[in-house]
């Protein structure tokens, strides 16, 4: 599974194309409105995605087969075989473009596994962009997003990045008009992940038993807040229908949310299906201070600062 990483490959010495390095961000959902369960097992979503500056990096080199190695978050836990979304993405692109799926891929992960930050989806998006460049298949971003939709609901967004509205099961994305402002976030990473399907099932169970909170309304207030520069206004508009489910599955997250707000965050929410919590800070200095307080309070494995929006999967 962990074949040796050979940086100076014969192909490269001969001047053949490669390596191609792609950086891809994590995402948070500023609004995650979950509708009813559909017949295909997915829920209808009304969400606003936001790409933040925590990155995975995928390097693609020429090879005689398709192979994946990795380092960083999740090493030793994440299967590197055909079940891995990176390998599935490479196969999907090769099938679409009619080329052989040959590449040596190396993943440097900083986005935690099963954290609610779409790390696996980000890696799939990176694989599409990297292999497209390595193989010279020259697909447009929209074509890559079309392939991405079959790999996972969040994958198309990570091809584009920025801030975008997601509908359908989340795979239909359109950019959101926003001011050219950077928002400052603190990302509290928990020990261990949460299963996304389990979080959706828990939400269904809470709703069936009448224990769920009222579903989020429209995204209008959030979209308005994104057109101005005051983080206090934005703070009042964030929301996540999966938060109650994540809290029911991991009650300790309530302490993390409380600690962030006590440390001066404008607001905190669970990211996606959790267990990562994200906090909006007034500015970069505040974000640093809140991250340090969260770390010393012992309410998370690690707290990192990030800003957003940032672009999606890009070569370079
Ligand atoms: O699309 P993706 O493979 O990332 O989804 C993982 C799981 O999350 C799905 O199998 C489903 O259980 C749940 N999900 C959902 N509704 C969505 C997106 C995901 O129920 N819109």
TrEMBL record:
Q: What does this protein do?
A: Catalyzes the phosphorylation of the position 2 hydroxy group of 4-diphosphocytidyl-2C-methyl-D-erythritol.
* Classification via Pfam families: GHMP_kinases_C, GHMP_kinases_N
Active-site positions, per UniProt? 27, 154
Which PANTHER family did the record assign? 4-DIPHOSPHOCYTIDYL-2-C-METHYL-D-ERYTHRITOL KINASE, CHLOROPLASTIC
Q: Where is the GHMP kinase C-terminal domain?
A: 224-298
What does the record list as GO biological process? Answer: isopentenyl diphosphate biosynthetic process, methylerythritol 4-phosphate pathway; terpenoid biosynthetic process
Which taxonomic lineage is given here?
A: Bacteria, Bacillati, Actinomycetota, Actinomycetes, Micromonosporales
Q: Which UniProt keywords apply?
A: ATP-binding, Isoprene biosynthesis, Kinase, Nucleotide-binding, Transferase
The record's family statement is: Belongs to the GHMP kinase family. IspE subfamily.
Q: What is its EC number?
A: 2.7.1.148
Gene3D superfamilies documented for this protein: 3.30.230.10, GHMP kinase, C-terminal domain
Q: What is this protein called?
A: 4-diphosphocytidyl-2-C-methyl-D-erythritol kinase
Q: Locate the GHMP kinase N-terminal domain: which residues?
A: 84-162
Enzyme class, one word?
A: transferase
Kindly list the positions annotated as binding ATP. 112-122
Name its species: Micromonospora lupini str. Lupac 08
Task: State whether keyword ATP-binding applies.
Answer: yes
MF annotations from Gene Ontology: 4-(cytidine 5'-diphospho)-2-C-methyl-D-erythritol kinase activity; ATP binding
Q: Which domain of life is it from?
A: Bacteria
From the UniProt record, give the pathway where this protein acts. Isoprenoid biosynthesis; isopentenyl diphosphate biosynthesis via DXP pathway; isopentenyl diphosphate from 1-deoxy-D-xylulose 5-phosphate: step 3/6
The coiled-coil segments of this chain are: none
User: InterPro entries, per this entry?
Assistant: GHMP_kinase_C_dom, GHMP_kinase_C_sf, GHMP_kinase_N_dom, IspE, Ribosomal_Su5_D2-typ_SF, Ribsml_uS5_D2-typ_fold_subgr
Q: What does the record give as the reaction this protein catalyses?
A: 4-CDP-2-C-methyl-D-erythritol + ATP = 4-CDP-2-C-methyl-D-erythritol 2-phosphate + ADP + H(+)
What the entry lists under NCBIfam families is as follows: ispE, PRK03188.1
């Amino acid at each position: 599974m962990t074949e040796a990483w050979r940086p100076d490959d014969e192909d490269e010495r001969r001047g053949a194309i490669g390596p191609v390095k792609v950086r891809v961000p994590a995402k948070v959902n500023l609004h995650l409105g979950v509708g009813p369960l559909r017949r295909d097992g997915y829920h209808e979503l009304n969400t606003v995605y936001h790409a933040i500056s925590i990155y995975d990096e995928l390097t693609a080199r020429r090879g005689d087969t398709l192979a994946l190695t990795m380092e960083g978050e999740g090493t030793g836990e994440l299967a590197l075989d055909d079940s891995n979304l990176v390998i599935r993405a490479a196969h999907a692109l090769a099938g679409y473009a009619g080329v052989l799926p040959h590449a040596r891929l190396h993943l440097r992960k900083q986005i935690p596994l099963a954290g609610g930050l779409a790390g696996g989806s980000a890696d799939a998006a990176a694989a599409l962009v990297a292999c497209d460049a390595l193989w010279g298949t020259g697909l447009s971003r929209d074509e890559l997003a079309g392939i991405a939709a079959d790999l996972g609901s969040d994958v198309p967004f990570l091809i584009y990045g920025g801030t975008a509205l997601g509908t359908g099961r989340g795979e239909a994305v359109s950019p959101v008009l926003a001011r050219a402002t950077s928002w400052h976030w603190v990302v509290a990473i928990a020990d261990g992940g949460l299963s996304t399907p389990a979080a959706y099932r828990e939400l269904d169970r809470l709703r069936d038993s009448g224990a769920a909170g009222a579903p989020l309304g429209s995204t209008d207030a959030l979209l308005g807040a994104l057109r101005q520069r005051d983080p206090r206004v934005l703070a009042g508009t964030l929301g996540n229908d999966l938060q109650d489910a994540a809290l029911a599955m991991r009650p300790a997250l309530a302490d993390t949310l409380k600690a962030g707000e006590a440390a001066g965050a404008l607001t905190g929410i669970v990211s996606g299906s959790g267990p990562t919590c994200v906090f909006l800070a007034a500015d970069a200095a505040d974000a640093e201070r809140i991250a340090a307080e969260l770390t010393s309070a012992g309410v998370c494995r690690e707290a990192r600062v990030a800003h957003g929006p940032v672009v999606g999967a890009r070569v370079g």
